[in-house]
Design the sequence.
């Protein structure tokens, strides 16, 4: 029962963070801007968008699994890891995120001059895919570390949930903005409060994990 409640908390936090993270304009707005400037077809935009989202998710999951393995090793060495240390880690990281709340900065080429890569589709694809892979979602990595205390299956399950939710969310944003929706294109609240929201989610999950024990 305790394990099920903890996993529900971790999965819920992963779902929330993946959606919040995907709402940040730097994940999709530069791509849509380039697609419009270069006169890409919708099919080309969606294919490059999927490749970029997949690369971002892959980079995050690779790092997450490595941290999950660290969590597994810690749980084998320190019996109290999953029950005491892991929740404390989440709460501390949550407090740090909530306190700093710096504007989100992501490795997408929003500052790159479009003319530099004008009419070079392959180069643009390499830029988006490469930078998205090298810019993992660090906010969710602490959850992977915590999940490691509950075994590799928990880490892999979180990877699946994070991957599916992130890719679907990013692709949805690309579709909405490309079709003309401006609802999220200039969402300053999300962009300027993402760290604070992330911090609250981590703190809540940490407290839940601690008190359920």
Sequence:
């Amino acid at each position: 029962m305790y394990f099920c409640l903890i996993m529900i908390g971790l999965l819920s936090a992963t779902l929330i963070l993946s959606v919040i993270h995907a709402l940040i304009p730097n994940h999709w707005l530069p791509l849509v801007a380039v697609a419009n400037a270069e006169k890409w077809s919708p099919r080309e935009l969606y294919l490059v968008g999927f490749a970029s989202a997949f690369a971002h998710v892959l980079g995050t999951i690779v790092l997450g699994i490595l941290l999950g393995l660290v969590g597994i090793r810690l749980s084998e060495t320190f019996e109290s890891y999953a029950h005491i240390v892991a929740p404390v880690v989440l709460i501390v990281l949550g407090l740090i995120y909530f306190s700093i709340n710096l504007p989100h900065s992501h490795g997408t080429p929003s500052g790159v001059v479009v003319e530099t890569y004008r009419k070079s589709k392959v180069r643009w694809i390499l830029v988006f895919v490469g930078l998205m892979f090298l810019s993992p979602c660090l906010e969710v990595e602490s959850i992977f570390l915590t999940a490691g205390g509950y075994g590799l299956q928990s880490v892999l399950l979180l990877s699946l949930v994070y991957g599916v939710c992130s890719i679907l969310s990013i692709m949805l944003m690309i579709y909405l903005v490309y079709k003309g929706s401006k609802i999220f294109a200039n969402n300053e609240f999300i962009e300027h409060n993402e760290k604070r929201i992330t911090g609250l989610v981590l703190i809540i999950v940490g407290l839940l994990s601690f008190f359920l024990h």
Observations:
- The radius of gyration is 18 Å.
- Residues 2-212 form one domain.
- The first helix runs from residue 2 to 22.
